[in-house]
Amino acid sequence: MNELSVNDLHLDYGSGAQLNPILKGVSMHLQRGEVVALLGPSGSGKTTLLRAVAGLESPKSGTIDIGERRVFDGASDFEMPAEQRSLGLVFQSYALWPHKSVFDNVAYGLRLRKLGKGEIDSKVGEVLSQLGLGHLGARFPHQLSGGQQQRVAIARALVYNPPVILLDEPLSNLDAKLREEARAFLRELIVRLGLSALMVTHDQAEAMAISDRILLLNNGKIEQQGSPQSMYETPDTLFTAEFMGSNNRIPGKVMSRNGSAVQLEVAGSTIHGTARGSNSGSEVAPLIRLEEVKVSATELANSLELPLLTCMYLGDRWECLFASGEISLRAYSSYRLEAGRYWLHLPADKLWVF
Amino acid sequence: MPTISLPGSRLNWPRGLVVTTACVAIFLPLYLIFYQSFLSAPFFMPGTTFGLDAYRFIFDDPDFALAFKNGIILATGLAAIAVPLGGMLAFLMIRTDLPGRGWIAPLLLVPIFVSPMVMGFGYVVSMGPVGFYSTWAKQLLGFIPWNIYSFTSIVVIAGLTHVPHVYLYASSALKSLGSDVEEAARVAGASPLRVMLDVSLPMIMPALAYAGVLVFFLGFEVFGLVLVLGDPEGHLVLATYLYKLTNKLGTPSYHLMAAVAVCLVMVTLPLVMMQRWLLKSANKYVSIKGKGARQKLMPLGRWKWIALGLLGAWLLVTIVLPISGIVLRSFVQYWGEGVKLADVLTLQHFRDILEQHSLMRGILNTVLIGVIGGALAVVCYCAIALAMHRKPDGITRLLDYSVLVPRAVPGLLAGLSFLWVFLFVPSWLDGMLKATDNGAAAWLSAHAIPLLRELRSTIFALWLAYSVVWLAYGMRLISTALLQVGPELEEAARAVGASRGQVTRDVTLPLVKYGLLGAWLMVFLIFEREYSTGVYLLSPGTEVIGAMLVSLWAGGSADLVAALSFINIVLVALGLGIALRFGVKLHN
């Protein structure tokens, strides 16, 4: 069953000469117990889409349904105010009310729903302990660490059991070390409580780690959607391939095509690749993930011979930069490479030609 | 687990009421001015006809032309003095290690909060022909090296007392300017003076331009200073011309006053709208530059003493001389050449005030209108600001411009137009009720109308006029506070199910609490200072110090004026002291 459906949503900022379309016909759905990530570069409309679902932005046309309830219908000009949608929303900045204690921040939604005092106490206590905040109820937001503030923001959004919880860049305000812990905590929490969640992020690693499904937005449209694995391993477009991982772009010309097999000419060598996407012309963008490039000191088939420029130590491995003329390739190595020339093997099925 | 849903929907904030009331309070007085200016006699006289007689009269009056010309000269001269000095002062106070900045900063604001009427009087008693410092100078030099009553002196004094207005805007712009641009100039070999002239001040040009328009506009509505200082040699500006018209023809010449008022508003209204436009572009300029970065003060080195001397001279002429003059004058019996200060010291003037019932009531009223009226005004401003808060629609845009309109109406005119409102509305309502001829209307006409008429001679009339006159100022205070509430704090409340009214009550208002208290204090100071708005509303029961100063001055009782001025200064000083004690930001 769909907890959330968005159908052909259009949204503009400004009007007249300054009309700036932000969403250009986005459709999506979210099933019960599913976590969907809205991924995209800044300006792609992902936060706007989330805010439109929450009722904080007014779309121009399309529909939004939460469960059985229609909350926005462009055709009949119906828009349910944000406060009646009963969604949970976690802000990027957390937006904790500085004048209320942790307990009062969380309890506010229940007070608005006119629950009795005993019921409020027990529900707030329950959600705070679920988030490991049981002892912090009397504190004020400024007395908490960043990670604790984030959990209060989540508790506040969860306390009245919203059908869908919306998370706007939930991890981006935490420092790098804390972010990885929070990522694991968030995934665990979502699975443990069986939440349906829609999360906005610009970090593809975060999106892949937390969500069941990724919607990649580009310039107000959905570029591609699918499981994290399919998005990473079988991108349909150049944009998706580039956004989801670290890549080498290889300047090459098409020599011949045979089905999906493509023969390229790269700096005098002949390289085999695999066609992806819908481009069947001669102007192509060949691309390979960094981790698929194999470095060898001896000659291999389907490889380019390049001199080593420099190596960068990353802790668990080395990232090495090879370049000659207009070709520049990066590859991983488990040990530091000596200066010299190397053969870089590009597996034909991993060299995507868009 | 089922989602806990909200109980049934509730009513929205009664925005319409706020918007309607605000618009009536803003536009009805203005409308009356325009209406009256096209009549041939005061509107309550029988047999008045529409026409341009009033305009014809004033345009033929050589005094009007003179007053208009003087007004332009005064405003231009004032801006020419205040803008460079204010910019320099801001640079010294904000960007350099000038010694004593801490205690100079609050002093700089004194001319803003002391009524110009008081300042003008202070100059008369300290530097007038028989002022304290004049007689002392004469003893030393054998002659008085200045003439405080010449028009040039008036322009210079007006310019010097308006320096703080420029300082406020220039200093807040300078605060948001990163010091790296100045350091770059120092490293390249520029002296502090060159840095200021070549880098700092040009970079805050939009703020200076805004302040320039502001002081030009303030110069155009200068009233108290010219009333006091311009009288002996007969220098007129539009506001004093308007004031003198009262007595010019013997009868209340409301139509002529209205015509003058329309001419004044025709000049000031475009200036106010220009200010708004400039402010917008100035803000843009600042935000493009982005981060205020860290501020490193620039060492002045040997320039320190020159700067301190300049600042000291300004403080001496603008604050020390007039204020000390008033303090001295309020404690001496009389003053003239050859009088020894020790022989004439007295408390008699204050005893006189104690014995005069109307004066005591005036002091009480001044305190009341500042404390209670100030609080009520803040409540009203807050209601209007909330009606506009994060609702970007046509009504907000309408209010946005409307609240600026009273700014263009000088206090003297606003008082006059509210007098007309209180004269006009009850009789107009009465006429309407009598015409409808039914029981309820007759009852209302017999009971409600007299009540409405009585409002004119209550302090409510004065409070209403004050609140409308200072609407734009108050709105700026409140909206500055409101803007500091992050939008996501309010959105978070809506997302958990709070209606707009509940968001306001539970999130927005608690968060701006301290901002509102600060605004209350600022409005208190402004209401204590106000003098011209009360002039035409002055009647038994509505006396306030400011308006009484104008009328006592006209009556020539310098002793009482001195003592009342002293009390007024004390009230303002108390307010300023409380503000500083509680760390209220006196400007942003």
Describe this structure in words.
- The complex is a heterodimer of chains A (354) and B (588).
- By secondary structure, chain A is α+β, with helices and mostly antiparallel strands.
- Chain A is built from eight helices and 22 strands.
- Chain A has helices at 46-54, 102-112, 117-130, 146-158, 176-193, 204-210, 228-233, 238-244, and strands at 2-13, 20-31, 35-39, 61-66, 69-73, 78-79, 88-90, 165-168, 197-201, 213-218, 221-226, 247-249, 253-258, 261-266, 269-275, 286-289, 294-296, 303-313, 318-324, 327-333, 341-345, 352-353.
- In chain A, the strands form four sheets. In chain A, strands 7-8-9-3-10-11 form a six-stranded mixed β-sheet, with helices on both faces. In chain A, strands 12-16-22-15-14-13 form a six-stranded mixed β-sheet, with no helix packed on it. In chain A, strands 2-1-4-5-6 form a five-stranded antiparallel β-sheet, with helices on one face.
- In chain A, α2 crosses α3 (117-130) and α2 (102-112) runs parallel beside α4.
- Chain A is globular and about 75 Å long.
- Chain A starts with a strand and ends with a strand.
- With 588 residues, chain B is mostly helical.
- Chain B has 28 helices and no strands.
- In chain B, α1 crosses α15, α6 (116-127) packs across α16 (303-330) and α16 crosses α28 (558-581).
- Chain B is globular and about 85 Å long.
- Chain B starts with 14 loop residues before the first helix and ends in a 7-residue tail after the last helix.
- Chains A and B meet through α2 of A and α25 and α26 of B.
Offer a few descriptive terms.
A: 354 residues; alpha+beta; six-stranded mixed sheet; 24% helix; B: 588 residues; mainly alpha; 0% strand; globular
Write the layout of secondary structure elements.
The complex is a heterodimer of chains A (354) and B (588).
Chain A: E1 2-13, E2 20-31, E3 35-39, H1 46-54, E4 61-66, E5 69-73, E6 78-79, E7 88-90, H2 102-112, H3 117-130, H4 146-158, E8 165-168, H5 176-193, E9 197-201, H6 204-210, E10 213-218, E11 221-226, H7 228-233, H8 238-244, E12 247-249, E13 253-258, E14 261-266, E15 269-275, E16 286-289, E17 294-296, E18 303-313, E19 318-324, E20 327-333, E21 341-345, E22 352-353
Parallel strand pairs in A: 3-9, 3-10, 7-8, 8-9, 15-22
Antiparallel strand pairs in A: 1-2, 1-4, 4-5, 5-6, 10-11, 12-16, 13-14, 14-15, 16-22, 17-21, 18-19, 18-21, 19-20
Helix pairs in contact in A: 2-3, 2-4
Chain B: H1 15-37, H2 53-60, H3 62-95, H4 101-108, H5 110-113, H6 116-127, H7 132-141, H8 151-161, H9 163-175, H10 180-187, H11 192-203, H12 205-220, H13 224-229, H14 238-248, H15 254-289, H16 303-330, H17 341-344, H18 348-355, H19 357-388, H20 394-402, H21 411-436, H22 439-455, H23 459-469, H24 471-483, H25 487-495, H26 500-529, H27 545-555, H28 558-581
Helix pairs in contact in B: 1-15, 1-21, 2-15, 3-8, 3-9, 3-12, 3-14, 6-16, 9-12, 10-11, 12-15, 14-15, 16-28, 18-28, 19-23, 19-24, 19-26, 21-22, 21-23, 24-26, 25-26, 26-28, 27-28
